[in-house]
Amino acid sequence: MTEYLIGRGYKNIGFVSLPIHDNDRAAERRAGFLAAHQRRGLISAPELLLESPPGLRSGGRALATLIERVPAVDAIFLSGDVLATGALLEANRRGLDVPNRIAIVGSDDNELQEAVSPPLTTLRFPRYQIGHQAAEMLMKQLRNPSYDIRKLDLGYELIERASA
User: Fold this and answer.
1) What is the pLDDT of residues 67-83, one digit of tens each?
2) Crossing angle for the helix pair 56-69 and 81-93, nearest 10 degrees?
């Protein structure tokens, strides 16, 4: 998603995740955000990185915090769609033009993201396949304790909508 935003010309991109302490997914998403900047030879300002509790209100507060810290922030990648939807609702309350003043994107995708205004650009993960593969790997581990549990990348799909 970060590569997508950079490719669309956004320069001051904020990143919001759940707290990364004891949360591998949040930590990996943040590392990916930073790695995308590094691959492009860009520096992500530390004040554009934020950890947030879950929830719609938290997403709204995250948007407000990032705008206060860096008024020139022009895009925010929130690591979950509930946070992103909260940020989008807050942008609408403030009269901020999404995506022309600020782009807001998330990840996870569900039908709510199609219904908000503007519809949210997000990442979609193959949830069924993830669950199925996890169950398969667990069953193999239970049958054979020496089975080597490995990481399996099932990919994602970028869902382009009107928020970026």
Assistant:
1) 999 999 999 999 999 99
2) 60
How far, in Å, CA of 50 to CA of 63, rounded? 10
Please give the pLDDT value at position 134: 87
Sequence-separated (6 or more) residues with CB below 8 Å from residue 16: 50, 51, 52, 59, 62, 66, 76, 77, 78, 79, 83, 87
The C-alpha atoms of residue 62 and residue 131 are separated, in whole angstroms, by 30
Domain 2-125 has CATH 3.20.20.70: no
C-beta of residue 152 within 8 angstroms of C-beta of residue 130: no
What pTM, to 2 d.p., does this model score? 0.90
Number of Cα atoms under 13 Å in the Cβ half of residue 110: 8
Candidates 124, 125, 52, 143; CA nearest to 90 is 52
Give me the average pLDDT of each 10-residue run along the chain (164 residues).
97 97 93 96 94 97 98 97 97 98 95 94 89 89 87 90 97
pLDDT number for residue 150: 77
**E strands along the chain, which residues?**
13-17, 49-51, 75-78, 103-105, 122-124, 157-159
CA–CA distance, 91 with 77 (Å, rounded to integer): 14
Tokens 């490995």 -> residue: 150
The domain locations on the chain are 2-125
